[in-house]
Design brief:
mainly alpha, 72% helix, globular, 0% strand, single chain
């Protein structure tokens, strides 16, 4: 898959996380399995970080580029948390969500460095 596809996937995930984080989910889709909100945060930011790393391809193989992407995604997560506290009535900013986001980002960097970068 070409880098352009990964770029579009990264943009789509960024928009989806932004919208999903800031809209009201009064009529949430109920499923039979309970999943921790923190696991969803970690998984979402894992996927977001991986998508941006893949979008930048060989450039992200450099430690500096990888760290810049990780920092940008982390700051994005903090901004989303602040916006949740300011713009929404139903959602609130949560420091534990920031920690979960960081965990997803860290796991993505490790996974990318050990698995994807070598391929």
């Amino acid at each position: 898959m070409g880098r352009n596809y990964f770029f579009y996937i990264a943009i789509l995930l960024t928009v989806a996380i932004t919208v999903g984080s800031l809209i009201s989910l009064k009529n949430e889709l109920q499923i039979g399995v309970q999943i921790s909100d923190k696991i969803l945060h970690a998984f979402g930011y894992f996927m977001l970080t991986i998508s941006w790393l893949l979008a930048y391809g060989i450039k992200s193989a450099l430690l500096k580029s990888t760290m810049l992407i990780a920092i940008a995604v982390f700051i994005y997560g903090i901004i989303i948390e602040i916006l949740q506290g300011v713009l929404t009535d139903i959602r609130q900013a949560d420091l534990y969500d920031v920690f979960a986001n960081f965990t997803g980002i860290a796991v993505a960097i490790i996974f990318f460095s050990l698995v994807l970068k070598k391929n």
